[in-house]
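Budget justification aside, the reviewers requested a transparent look at the raw inputs and outputs of the sequence design task funded under Objective 1. We therefore reproduce one unedited record. The lines immediately below are the structure tokens for a 384-residue chain.
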């Protein structure tokens, strides 16, 4: 039922009660509508179908609003403010190879792990005179499943007579899953804030519309002297998460929204040409991912699903932390609600945070202006 206060869906029992009341009006108060009678069975069959129809109508109603829409419905709403859901990205690792000096490791050379995750070389690399070289290997599948320990990459998938041994050295870029509804809603709310120009909100909003950009912040130095980070007087620096392959779009977004005569600052520079043929160099910086490790111990009751419950807790924590955005701290107390949101969690007996597994505590994780929190691992233990 659609009223001035919104859509209200009738439950299955309410529909049955309404139909029984209608049947009594038509056939008399003494008509048998028990579930064992033919009329009672017909009423319940019809009520079941109508309940499903009302559930679908409710889903359609709420799909019209960004805060309640999900999936494709949310994607379609995002087009109205010029953003789209970010796709999953593959993990990249630095890999060391040993082989015959002077020979070349070709583009697409496959290496992998014993668990059969494969990574391919992104460019040709020549083996040095010392019989070794390093190359970048990208996971063949996008998503967080490729975020393994670097040392696990030790298998040559397509053997070559020129390569004797390979070993992962370090993670260059963590893989990400397709942007969740929760993260997309947050970006939607941020993107609609600044519709003007020449202010921080409008610049950040323009950056959030750039494909693959997941978060952005703007730091301003309004003083007459350089600040502690080296920003010149009366300048600003944009910190951007994602968008590594869209530097032109990022530079254009900043140029279109920045105040006249105000300098840009950052580690990345891109030169654009305006309509008059004049060149403008736009500077900005990419964020640095700060790993966050979470350890949880819980007590549960009989409502806790032993098969899916732990994964639900992990997904809640990862989704929350990874959606915080640039420069936002990870607050210790904020994680309790994400844990208790899973049915059957009775008590959180231990919760520890850290930037690595060797330094865990109950303190907040402080994130700098140029950093973005990224949950690298979550361990959940059920205490009996």
């Amino acid at each position: 039922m659609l009223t001035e206060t919104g859509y209200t869906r009738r439950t299955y029992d309410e529909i049955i009660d309404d139909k029984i009341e209608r049947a009594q009006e038509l056939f008399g108060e003494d008509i048998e509508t028990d579930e064992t009678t033919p009329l009672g069975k017909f009423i319940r069959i019809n009520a079941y179908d109508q309940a499903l129809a009302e559930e679908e109508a409710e889903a359609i109603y709420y799909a019209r609003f960004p805060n309640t829409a999900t999936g494709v419905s949310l994607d379609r709403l995002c087009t109205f403010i010029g953003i789209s859901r970010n796709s999953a990205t593959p993990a990249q690792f630095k890999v060391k190879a040993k082989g015959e000096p002077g020979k070349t490791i070709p583009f697409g050379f496959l290496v992998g792990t014993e668990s059969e995750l494969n990574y391919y070389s992104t460019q040709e690399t020549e083996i040095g005179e010392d019989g070794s070289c390093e190359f970048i290997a990208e996971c063949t599948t996008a998503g967080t499943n490729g975020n393994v320990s670097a040392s696990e990459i030790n298998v040559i998938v397509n053997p070559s007579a020129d390569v004797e041994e390979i070993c992962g050295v370090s993670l260059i870029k963590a893989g990400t899953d397709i942007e969740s509804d929760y993260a997309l809603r947050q970006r939607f709310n941020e993107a609609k804030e600044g519709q003007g120009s020449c202010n921080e909100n409008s610049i950040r909003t323009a950056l959030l519309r750039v494909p693959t950009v997941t978060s952005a912040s703007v730091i301003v130095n309004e003083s007459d002297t350089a600040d502690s980070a080296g920003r010149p007087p009366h300048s600003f620096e944009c910190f951007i998460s994602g968008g590594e392959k869209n530097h032109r779009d990022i530079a254009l977004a900043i140029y279109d929204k920045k105040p006249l005569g105000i300098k840009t600052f950052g580690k990345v520079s891109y030169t654009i040409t305006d309509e008059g043929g004049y060149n403008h160099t736009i500077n900005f910086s990419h964020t640095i991912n700060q790993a966050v490790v979470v350890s949880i111990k819980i007590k549960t009751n009989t409502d806790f699903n032993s098969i899916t419950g732990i994964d639900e807790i992990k997904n809640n924590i990862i989704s929350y932390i990874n959606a915080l955005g640039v420069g936002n701290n990870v607050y210790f107390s904020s994680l309790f609600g994400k844990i208790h949101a899973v049915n059957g969690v009775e008590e959180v007996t231990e919760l520890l945070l850290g930037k690595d597994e060797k330094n865990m505590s109950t303190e907040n994780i402080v994130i700098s202006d140029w950093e973005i929190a990224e949950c690298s691992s979550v361990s959940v233990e059920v205490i009996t």
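The chain has eight helices and 19 strands. The first strand starts at residue 2 and ends at 3. Computational costs for records of this kind are itemized in the attached budget.
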